[in-house]
Amino acid sequence: MKLIIKENIKLATNVFDDMGIFWAEIADKNHTEHQIQFLKNNLNKKGLILDLACGTGRHLIPLLAEGYKLLGVDSSSKLLRIAKQRCPRIDVIRVDLRSLPFKKEVFEAIISMDTSVGYLPTETDDRKSMIELNRTLVKGGTFFVDVFNIKQLKHKYGKKGQIDRLNWFGIQVLLKICGKRVFRFLKLKEYPSFYLLQRRLINSDSKKLEDLWFIYTKNSEKVKKFNHKVRLYESEELEGMLSKSEFKVKCILGGYEHQEFSTESTRLILITTK
User: Fold this and answer.
1) Rounded to an integer, what distance in angstroms lies between the CA atom of residue 178 and that of residue 265?
2) Fewer CB within 10 Å, N or C, the chain?
3) Do 32 and 93 contact (CB within 8 A), yes or no?
4) Going from the N-terminus, what domains does the chain have, and what CATH number goes with each?
5) In terms of C-beta density within 10 A (0-12 exposed, 13-18 middle, 19 or more buried), how is residue 60 classed?
6) What is the pLDDT of residues 138-197, one digit of tens each?
7) How far is CA 108 from the centre of its chain?
């Protein structure tokens, strides 16, 4: 594509590469319809939209079908491969968010849905990515940032975390002893090809959401373990980071139906302009 001006640097694999199709099923089930409707209510079809951390294309593909022009980027080659399999005509590129391979001011809008911010190694890297995103956005363009509300998660999980009222060590033991009966007893999350057990906590020192996922596959009846971590920001911190990257915060929302933001909101959504 003509808007690309440099090659991507070599990227390391990440948890989403490891999880592959498992993550595709988890992500597809979580809020996707509400997110797409939110985007349709706030985007226009005039220019090119960048889908940041597009993953399997769960936002990109439906919006493309509605007539929007989009380019998807992600750091996971496996998720991008799944996106291409789902819709061969989409444009997706594997990138390093700290050094985007695009010219200046090429995107009319940038969407960052479902907590895409916070996976880079450090807060400094997050700030670098914000500066890069501002560089590629046209003047007057819109940047949508949707992340977990850390205040609500702190209240829900605190330091100890929870895994459906059972600690993760007990889960491992029960899995070995009882197999599928564990899931029937606990009524845990079921997806098309697997069951998911989750231990979740907020690490107050690193400000990270830390998940320990046990995935029990239906076809092979094997248990796989994954560690998932993402850095979270208070609303004031994220607003400050965006402002320093020369974004203007227009409004802060607490949900996909334009709910007012509060400490109890499950989402923290910032609509910003350049």
Assistant:
1) 37
2) N
3) no
4) 15-150+233-273 (3.40.50.150), 152-230 (no CATH)
5) buried
6) 999 999 999 999 998 888 776 544 444 445 555 554 555 444 444 443 446 788 888 887
7) 21
